[in-house]
Amino acid sequence: RTAGNPLFAISLVRDWVERGALRAGPGGFRLGERVPAELPADLGRMWKDRVLRVLSDRPAADGHALELAACLGLQVDDVEWSSALAEAGLAPPYALLEQLMRQALVVPLDGGWAFVHGMLREAVMHGAESGRRLAGHHLACAAMLKRSSRRQDQGRMAQHLIGAGRQEEAIDPMIQQATFMVNNAPHDAIIAVAQRALDLLGLMEVPPSDARWGRAWLALAWVERDRGDLGASRGWLSRVETAAEIHGWVRERMCALAERAEATRREDLAEAFALHQRVLAVADGVLFVDGMKIY
């Protein structure tokens, strides 16, 4: 049944020892009174059985708190976990955490802790999904991250909103994440995030007049410029300018013109100057656009 997987074999023996199915004897281990009737079907089932035994004599709220931690990731930051639990109306179950550590199901980290294996985390999340609590946990995590001042948390918030079934609400933070990633992440990763935002815009049937289309295109233009594909970058900028003129997007049009001016500066200084003049013309008399100060 282990199919040559040493982790399965080791975890299985550890599980038997914890359950009293194997007991230490003079010459090694011997069978205990509670011999398992059958082997677990797979490693995932074994992790699920282990965590269920720990939770069997704990309040239901403790299990829900553990599920929320699993939503946060394999590694759990104590501050984030406490804040997300507060959003869900729960308290950190420190006694449960100590018990999980004693049974080597979680390990301590600086400022938090971690599930000992990804399959354990998956088993906990599966329990939340089966109990129809997963969407609520994702919403609590998203609410916690919404208060974060770190721009890189926008992408995490978007993923939690998607997990909660709030796809349209995820679009804005996803575009912000793609924009933040420019010059800070691999090009393919940025393109994947921006393209995912465009996919969601299409899936949710967001009208072409919505400026979020332009913001996603701008992110793609910036990353194409950054990796040296100026032709592709100009293509996205042209799309932004055309849509901005039709739908009256002021900020997006200014950004596209300014980006095109910067790209043109080394080739044609006069053209770059003319483009900057167009930026000023678009911004004429405008002090703020969507909360962004122009002058």
Features:
mainly alpha, 3-stranded antiparallel sheet, 295 residues, two-stranded antiparallel sheet
Describe this structure in words.
With 295 residues, this protein is mainly α. The strands form three sheets. Strands 3-5-4 form a three-stranded antiparallel beta sheet. A two-stranded antiparallel sheet has the order 1-2. Strands 6-7 form a two-stranded antiparallel sheet. A hairpin with a 2-residue loop joins β4 and β5. α11 packs parallel to α13. The longest helix has 18 residues. The radius of gyration is 26 Å and the shape is elongated. The relative contact order is 0.06. The C terminus is likely disordered.
> SSE string, helix = H, strand = E?
HEEHHEHHEEHHHHHHHHHEE
User: Low-confidence stretches at least 5 residues in length (pLDDT < 50)?
Assistant: 285-295
State the separation between the terminal residues, measured CA to CA: 69 Å
Shape: elongated
Strand order of the largest sheet: 3-5-4
Mean model confidence by pLDDT: 85
Structural class: mainly alpha
Task: Describe what is shown at a glance.
By secondary structure, this protein is mainly α.
Question: Which helices and strands appear, and what pairs or packs with what?
Answer:
Layout: H1 6-19, E1 22-25, E2 28-31, H2 43-55, H3 60-72, E3 75-77, H4 78-87, H5 94-102, E4 106-109, E5 112-115, H6 118-130, H7 134-146, H8 153-163, H9 167-181, H10 187-203, H11 212-226, H12 230-247, H13 250-264, H14 269-283, E6 288-289, E7 292-293
Antiparallel strand pairs: 1-2, 3-5, 4-5, 6-7
Helix pairs in contact: 2-6, 3-4, 3-6, 3-7, 4-7, 7-8, 8-9, 9-10, 9-11, 10-11, 11-12, 11-13, 12-13, 13-14
